[in-house]
Write a structure and sequence with these properties.
By secondary structure, the chain is of the alpha/beta class. It contains 19 helices and 15 strands. It has a five-stranded mixed β-sheet. The chain has a four-stranded mixed β-sheet with strand order 6-9-5-10. The chain has a three-stranded mixed β-sheet with strand order 7-8-15. The structure holds the ligand OC[C@H]1O[C@H](O[C@H]2O[C@H](CO)[C@@H](O)[C@H](O)[C@H]2O)[C@H](O)[C@@H](O)[C@@H]1O.
Length: 432
């Protein structure tokens, strides 16, 4: 990949992330089919798909490199919404308002989705194609062997750890609990792991929008790190080397869960995308064998459960050579039919009201009701340009407690120092 836009005004170059697992190709297949539709409807125009096969962090770096020059900038890029503000600030993306104003489907998007790609300047830089929530998946067969209930519903962190300890004792050879951690898995660790803990601890989020300040790591931050430290100290998680592998998410989705090697996974609503779509890991029994339950707050404090939400968006780079044609392709990606198809294929939570009401969407994904139900208690990451840097600092803190090099308290202190170096004075102490 890495081809540039060049000067061919009939070709749209579309950069997107391709899974590092060669068996996972449903996004490629979906894009190929939309490309065919588009080319049929626009004779003489071509879509050139530019898959970037890399772990999440490397994908972002590569896409940013490409966007720096008109010679290499794609005409369309798939952006994780947590990076979009940083890419806007870097000048990589162009506002889409003039297109959106004339596109009636934009009125179908829910406000949180519209906000996900909106910058401080009030302009919108991306069209989101779904969102997600997070919770606990558990293997009922392993739970049965361990004497744990099929309707498991932990009320606090202690009950999650207790169940993992029971599995460790009674079902040797399986990994009791996966919580993503460390630097290499990138945002998967920070969001699915750390933030699913932190946002269930109490008063101190990562960022305080009212004071426009980042919140120093306090008790909740330290407790979240200690929870992770405990999982690895007690050997309730995977081997540390596996946990710190950039592709651990693929192992969870295509081996550990479907092969019955993992009892509990703190993970995303989209996991079933791996077991449908004719691969990468066909697992028709997943619906019967896996249970789902919300991640509880630390002590069970209201609202009792916690979730985080993210999503991806299609953006047009500032240096794109064919922005108008690229926008036409976005519209094709987002015909109602295609938007429904994508939501189903990628196991997304719909962000358009017409997609959310579509019978195909509503009936095709077991679990959709459960994960959509988490939306009302969900949290969004700070939509700040520096967030990706803050996220890296959290990944470092997580890694140091995972390897046992640090305690939660020391890792939180180191985070506070790094936070200051990233955001300067825009920091306030934690309340607790
Ligand atoms: O919905 C499927 C997608 O799930 C992942 O993205 C989600 O989790 C990320 C953190 O791991 C988060 O940054 C993003 O905003 C979420 O949508 C995954 O990274 C994608 O490849 C996958 O298609």
């Amino acid at each position: 990949c890495g081809g540039g836009s060049g000067s061919d005004s009939d070709t749209i170059k579309v950069a997107y992330n391709r899974s590092t697992d060669n068996k996972i190709r449903f996004k490629d297949q979906y894009l190929e089919s939309v490309k065919e539709q588009f080319e049929k409807a626009h004779p003489g125009k071509q879509i050139q798909l530019l898959p970037i096969q890399a772990p999440d962090n490397d994908y972002a770096t590569k896409a940013q490199q490409m966007m720096r020059s008109p010679k290499t900038a794609p005409d369309l890029v798939y952006e994780d919404t947590f990076r979009i503000n940083s890419d806007i600030k870097a000048g990589y993306l162009r506002p889409l308002d003039r297109y959106l104003a004339k596109w009636s489907s934009w009125g179908r998007f829910v406000p949180t989705a519209k906000a996900a790609a909106k910058a401080d300047d009030g302009k919108t830089y991306g069209v989101p194609d779904g969102t997600d929530t997070r919770g606990l998946w558990f293997n009922k067969k392993i739970f049965k062997k361990a004497g744990l209930p099929a309707d498991w519903s932990p009320k606090n962190w202690a009950e999650v750890l207790d169940a993992a300890r029971t599995v460790k004792r009674k079902v040797p050879g399986v990994i009791p609990f996966n919580v993503y951690t460390g630097k290499a898995p990138g945002e998967a660790a920070v969001m699915q792991g750390f933030e699913m803990l932190l946002y269930g601890t109490g008063e101190d989020p990562l960022y305080d929008p009212s004071s426009k300040k980042w919140v120093e790591g306090g008790k909740g931050f330290t407790d979240s790190l200690d929870f992770i430290g405990e999982v690895f100290k007690e050997k309730l998680g995977p081997d540390v080397s596996d946990a710190l592998d950039p592709n651990v998410g693929t192992s969870v989705a295509t081996e550990w869960l479907p092969e019955g090697k993992l009892a509990i996974a703190l993970d995303g609503s989209w996991m079933s995308q791996n077991w449908i779509n004719n691969g990468p890991k066909e697992w028709p029994a997943w619906e019967k064998e896996l249970g789902r339950t919300p991640m509880p707050t630390q002590e069970g404090q209201a609202p009792g459960k916690v979730s985080m939400s993210g999503g991806w968006a299609w953006s047009i780079p500032e240096r794109a050579q064919n922005p108008d044609l690229a926008w036409e392709f976005v519209k094709t990606l987002q015909t109602r039919k295609n938007a429904v198809r994508w939501a189903v294929v990628d196991a997304q939570i719909a962000v358009r009201d017409d997609v959310a009401a579509d019978p195909k969407y509503l009936s095709s994904m077991p679990g959709i009701k459960f994960f959509t139900g988490l939306v009302k208690d969900t949290h969004y990451r700070p939509a700040q340009p520096v967030y990706p840097q803050v996220s890296s600092a959290i990944g470092e803190a997580m890694e140091s407690v995972t390897t046992g090099d640090s305690t939660g308290e020391r890792a939180a202190k180191a985070y506070n120092e790094q936070l200051k170096s990233v955001v300067g004075k825009a920091v306030r102490p934690a309340k607790e």
